[in-house]
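Curious: can you check?
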Amino acid sequence: MSYDFIARIDNKRDNEGKKWLRTKNREIAMKSFYTKVISRLLSIFFVVIIAVTIPACATLQSYEKRASLARYYVNTGQYPDALSCFPEYNNGGKNEVLFCLERGTLLQATGKYSMSTREFEKAIHMMRYFENKAYISASRTAAQAGSLIVNEQIMPYTGEDFEKILVHALDAVNYLMLGDIDNARVEIRNVYTREKELYKKHQKEIENARRELQNVSWRNAFTRADPRDLNLLRRKAAHIVSVYQNAFAYYLSSFVYELNGEPDEAYIDLKNALRAEPWSMQIGKDLVRLSTELKYYDDLETWKERFGEFALPSEDSVDVLVILELGLGPEKQEAKIPIPLKRGGFTFASLPVYTFVPSLIKGARIDFDTRELRTTTLMNIDATAARDLMDRFPILFAKQVIRSYIKARATDELTRKYGALGAISGSVATAITERADLRSWSTLPKKIQVARIYVPTSQRKILISTIPARFSRYITIPREAKHVVVLCRVTDYNFSIDKKIFFRGGYNGQYY
């Protein structure tokens, strides 16, 4: 081997060593630079965050007061007063989606279906906007960073997953009450689309949360801190198959398909509804009826064995669908959960939990032609909200772990620079900025129940009474009616009712 060749190898090694050294020096310099920048940012962090958070907290508290007052008015049947809690032309700011959802619910309860649809669809548009917007503006980036460091209450409210699905189903009810079957079907299809989209999005968020949490268990931390609330949520959520399967929407879709003369499609959605609500006797009755009509005899035997046999309606009977919105849905309150820190010790984080409001009214009874039928639950909103929150706890907890680590770093830096004063300032700022986001769609009912009855043409009236017998209303069925939709909203102190009649007529046997 020549000396020149050896010299070239040595030179190459020297050059590589120098290159590595220069790279390492740059990395050290950059790390030093970022450390100084982070140190400076952490020093001013809490001053800025407090300035942002105090107005946000005030806004949140203002919304909570509005919602509480509105719920009182709803319970007593004072819907115009409840509506005044959410003014139409008031800029709701971060709560604009909630304002629209609340107004849509209250307008529906007063029979103003076109106005309700406008509010629901405005809320839907804003939910989509917040989900899909490219986060490139400086203010948007700052808000997101603030939500990671402080909490979600400084961000615009975009709705829980179950709310994003339910709003389409309630909008379909509006169109049904307006006699607009085509747009009712559009909203039902939107339910299916949102269920799939939100399920995929949720799975990705769960995977990210698991990576962040690593060996930290949100369930253990929650159990130690608040076993009562956690057990209550578990019990409420136990029978919900999935937030992303809405039995009420599927059942409504089945009814719309039958209105449109498509029993095969109606039968498919009834089976979807049964998967979401496996214990529903009303769904079972309809499966027996439709499988008989469609001559699906193998299925019919399965349904009879599971639900029993039922008398089939006569061809000239009037199909009446009663939709009962019962009580008031859950409210959020705050729970303090301990989170272990990497440097040792614990910090406390705030997470939302639901409280559930009992209702004196348990359902409704429909009397007609010496017979009676009771409404059955197709959507337990208390239980669905509990399931949704339980599913999201890993995501919320992961954010809290990151938030707690950043705040601990900031407090350590303030302590190092300013001693006891810095430590006190950091602790105070942590206490001020740590609050759970307690916003929710507050005027929703507690449950949505249905009953489907077939009234002989000789019968002109049906009686709808609450269980227990607190309120009752007669519904008159006009001659030539083929289908009737009865929409009821009942609370402990009020019972409102409206109906939509579908007559057979027009071209191609369509309804009007």
About this structure: Residues 33-509 form a domain with the Serine Threonine Protein Phosphatase 5, Tetratricopeptide repeat fold (CATH 1.25.40.10). Confidence is low (pLDDT under 50) at residues 33-39, 41-58, 134-147.
